[in-house]
Structures are given as structure tokens and as C-alpha cells.
Amino acid sequence: MNKVQPIRDLEKLEELKEELKRNGTRDYMLFYTGLNSGMRISDVVKLNVDDVKSFNGVMKPYITIIEKKTKKVKRFPLCNGLLIEMEKYTKNMKQGEYLFKSRKGDNKPITTVQAYRIIKRAGERIGLKDIGTHTMRKSFGYHHYQQFKDEALLQTIFNHSSPSITMDYIGITQDDIDISYKNFSI
Fold it and tell me: Is domain 10-150 given the CATH code 3.30.1490.20 in the classification?
């Protein structure tokens, strides 16, 4: 089984977003949410309108969830781009409605397997390999690190036990190894 990679190229990220939009807003928003939150796919698919909007229809500034994997509370702000996109996306949705509904059944979330298929197929159509649902979380981490250069903060966001695990997870360790090989000569 291949290890999925972050999408390092911002142009490829935009291309994938556009490809997902062709399938409909749901698929695009699924990816966009994972990409801008750093959440695991198991948590993204379980989001519903109550998580992002208050009962009076006003967008919440924060998402607060209990992570499926760790059972820990995770709270994070909706970044400006995600807040704007989520407000448009949920405009006609009702409280309690899943954000990423399956086309099978009434108000059921898509499965993580279906989310994987959606992202994998879209990635393959634009020539990306080593892609899956974890690519969203890894891409979030990779670009967060590139912007802030704060591995301790990212380690905390991901709840990793050490900075080296975080750096390996987001592909920075492999990038450093690749550069060292390219610049090495005896």
C-alpha cells in the first residue's frame, strides 16, 4: 500500500479543487473543509449544520468536535475562506442536516470509503498519484508549516507525540532527504 502524500504544488491544489467542483459542490466542500481544517476524514464526514451554524442561522466562528480517533475535544476557528465557502454551502440547509450527505438514504453522511473514492478519482483525473483522503490533512500540515515554520504548533494541532513524527507525516523529512541527495556528490 502506497503512503499518500501532501499536495505540495499550490497550482495542483487549485486544479484539484476545480476538478472536484465539476462533480458538484458537496465533493468540493468536502475536500476544501478537510484541506482548511486539518481534520481527519472520519471527523469531516460527520459534520452537520449544527457544527457550523447556530440555531438563528449565524455562522459559528469555531468548530468544536470530539475526534473519533482520539476521543479528545478539538476546537478551531473557521478560517476566512472556509467561513465564506461554508456560509454559501449551508445557505439552504437545515439544522441537523449532514454537510456531506450520501445520495443513499435520508440525511446520512457519506462514508470515508466513498470520500476516498471521490478524492482519489478526481486526483487521478488531473495526474496526481499517492493521493487519498489523508492527503487533505497532510496538505494542510505541509502548507501550514511552509507558511509559519512552527513544527511545535503543528505537532499540537495534529496531536502528535514528537516534532519528528509531524515533520515525517507532512512530508518535510522526505523533502529534506531528497534535497540532500540531489546536492550530494563525492
Answer: no
